[in-house]
Design a protein that fits this description.
about 120 residues, alpha+beta, OB fold (Dihydrolipoamide Acetyltransferase, E2P), 2 domains, five-stranded mixed beta barrel, about 35% helix, elongated, binds copper (II) ion
Length: about 120
């Protein structure tokens, strides 16, 4: 009888742990779903994150570009004018103040970095 009681206690504990795990999961799944929903192929997903902007200033030495941009959905950022670090200084080669661009900004290790930029036609 004592063994049965112990078994019950253990199974209750196990159930509790399993339940806690299940409870934590939906949030994770929801996040994954949101990320995958934006488009199956990687290219399509990146295009969806491209934001319209206008170059205000280019600083190749500092690897920075000042952009007036629209809403950046993937960063939950409203439209504004601000300076961004760029992933690669070569990205700035063909750009000058006044250029209309499409770009992608991402959070890389806590800093926001422009990872892609192209002239808008
Ligand atoms: Cu901004």
């Amino acid at each position: 009888m004592k063994t049965l009681k112990t078994a019950l206690v253990i199974s209750t504990l196990l159930l509790g742990a399993a339940h806690a795990q299940t409870a934590a999961k939906p949030g994770m799944d929801g996040m994954n779903m949101e990320a995958t929903q934006k488009g199956a192929p990687m290219g399509t997903m990146n295009m969806a994150n491209m934001v319209d902007g206008e170059v205000r200033k280019v600083d190749k030495t500092a690897k920075k570009i000042t952009l007036k941009h629209g809403e950046i959905k993937n960063l939950q950022m409203a439209g504004m004018t601000m300076a961004y670090q760029v992933k690669d200084a070569a990205m700035l080669d063909k750009l000058k103040a006044g250029d209309k661009v499409r770009f992608m900004a991402e959070k890389v290790g806590g800093a926001i970095v422009v990872t892609a930029i192209e002239q808008a036609k």
